[in-house]
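User: Could you check the structure of this?
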Amino acid sequence: MIIRKADEETEAGVLPSQELLEAMGAYNAELAEAGVLRAGEGLQPSAKGAKVKFSGGKPHVVDGPFTETKELIAGFTIIEVESYEEALEWVKRWPSLDGNGEVELELRRIFEADDFGEEFTPELREQEERLREQIAE
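Assistant: Sure, the predicted structure tokens are below.
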């Protein structure tokens, strides 16, 4: 997963320019043409969201906006590639127009069933597969 970190502009709700939208569209098209794009979306500013923190098992809702911009996410792209190195190469091709050339991206692996070891029993695997099939419908 490529995580696009938030900045002052994304948190202020500044929408991307037509030029940036075109550049991101071209980047996403490249990912799709290569067969590696799985999902990708921009996120609304934290002012339009909430955090839910649990304490003692009980939820506590905190409405946005949130002050720590550097810890927030402005969007994400999910790619499926053969290696970490290949993923890094795609991240390096991110449109330089984004964030006026001052954007921070984070690359993270998504857990796969085999990552959980024996604790992910055959029954849990079947349940996960049924859920994925249901989502695909």
